[in-house]
Design brief:
Length: 418
């Protein structure tokens, strides 16, 4: 049997796909609910078990492990020059309620694989290397999402985050203590040389193009808004149509108008109505209040801006048609441009390894967005089958994943030894 020609990696240093897969499949046992998927909510028992497994692996690989007050985990492989900050890699180990096995997990466990590969080759690096697991990236149980990296970057106040409650009223701080990950290290005082995050694409561009490595230059500008709709409760029977001020109907019109804007700017533009709260939400009662969350995105920041202002303009007709008050209670935006030097390094390394790669943008938020505010950052995407994610059928092919793991490995090596 002829082996397929593999690119010659510098020094023969190549990540071990089988070993990485074993780690991914061990992770896939922790918090498995639906077959093929993961349900590993932040700070749950399953999260604790995975954190314990991750820290054990890192200690076995010779790392010192520290966690900070929001439970971010830093596993450090010492460098020859400990006066220099560490080159870091990482992502998250928590998942959505119905999540997949690779979203986030791949980036952290690829970090573990890098430690193991360097150990197998007895390589010492000039700068230390750190593998980071950020707390609660998904935001499925505790809001806001990207909690650990937000605290690290100083985007949100630690006290507020520790007080965030899940739907049963349990606080983040309590759960961190319960699972043993309320660390003593101050949040965000850690100086990182740079940060590289490998993540599945969560889109289908790489999968369909046959290219295995995405060099992520940044993230699409997302414009989000929370819209409040005020109507009047009334019995649904006796109230004539012209007297109705149904907040639910107002919200429905807003959702439909937002969707129309997405279609207008498709395929590059996307708009989403994602969350609706209705009060009192009772059968037979017209709603007095509704709250709707919307977001608008486009690769061109100016166009996502235009989509948002078209939404604002469209509210006038929604008000009139539903005879309700509508106001935008809160607006936000996020988007990011990664560090040009880190991006260029990833690209150069891919070229050196003769691995085809393409530049692309991210459609979803990642911890790297926040980390990029405090350290030079880049991301690498690997293909995920048909772009399916946040779903138990999320899947990857190892043969199409290893190119980006090796690009990550050699990027970190080059960065740590420069
Ligand atoms: Zn993720």
């Amino acid at each position: 049997v002829r082996r397929e020609a593999t690119p010659a990696y510098p020094g023969g240093i190549e990540a071990n796909g089988e070993r990485l897969w074993d780690a991914l499949m061990r992770s896939a046992e922790i918090g498995a609910r639906r077959p093929g998927g993961l349900s590993r909510l932040a700070l749950s028992d399953a999260d604790r078990e995975m954190r314990d497994q991750f820290t054990t692996w890192c200690r076995d690989a010779g790392c010192t492990v520290e966690f900070d007050r929001i439970g971010n985990i830093f596993a450090r492989r010492a460098g020859m020059d400990e006066s220099q900050p560490a080159v870091s890699v990482g992502s998250h180990l928590d998942t959505q309620v119905v999540g997949g096995r690779f979203d986030g997990v791949l980036g952290v466990l690829a970090g573990v694989e890098i430690l193991r590969t360097l150990n197998a080759h007895r390589i010492q690096t000039r700068r230390a290397i750190e593998v980071i697991s950020w707390t609660n990236e998904e935001g499925a149980r505790f809001r806001p999402f990207m909690m650990g990296s937000a605290a690290f970057a100083g985007v949100a106040r630690l006290g507020d985050l520790l007080n965030s409650r899940d739907e049963n009223g349990v606080r983040v701080a309590e759960e961190l203590h319960r699972i043993g990950y309320a660390g003593r290290a101050p949040v965000g005082r850690r100086h990182l040389d740079s940060y590289f995050e490998l993540h599945i694409e969560q889109g289908a561009d790489l999968d369909s193009s046959g290219i295995d490595v995405g060099v992520v230059v940044g993230g699409h500008r997302v414009r989000g808004m929370r819209v409040e709709i005020h109507g009047q409760t009334a019995h649904s029977g006796p109230t004539p149509m012209e007297k109705r001020r149904n907040a639910l109907v107002g919200a429905a019109l807003v959702a439909a108008a937002a969707n129309d804007i997405g279609w207008h700017y498709a395929p590059l533009g996307r708009s989403s109505a994602t969350q609706l709260k209705v009060w009192p939400n009772c059968t037979g009662i017209l709603a007095e209040f509704a709250e709707l969350t919307l977001d608008f995105r486009h690769p061109e920041p100016a166009i996502s801006e235009r989509m948002a202002s078209e939404m604002e303009a469209a509210l006038t007709e929604c008000r009139t048609r539903a005879r309700v008050e509508i106001n935008i209670a809160h607006q936000w935006e996020f988007g990011v441009e990664f560090d040009p030097e880190c991006v260029a390094l990833v690209e150069t390394i891919a070229a050196r390894l003769e691995i085809p790669a393409r530049r692309m943008q991210s459609f979803t938020g990642h911890d790297a967005y926040y980390v990029s505010r405090v350290a030079p950052t880049a991301m690498i995407f690997s293909p995920c089958r048909e772009g399916i994610t946040h779903n138990e059928s999320e899947n990857i092919e190892l043969a199409r994943t290893m190119p980006s793991v090796n690009v990550l490995l050699h990027t970190v090596l080059a960065q740590a030894n420069r």
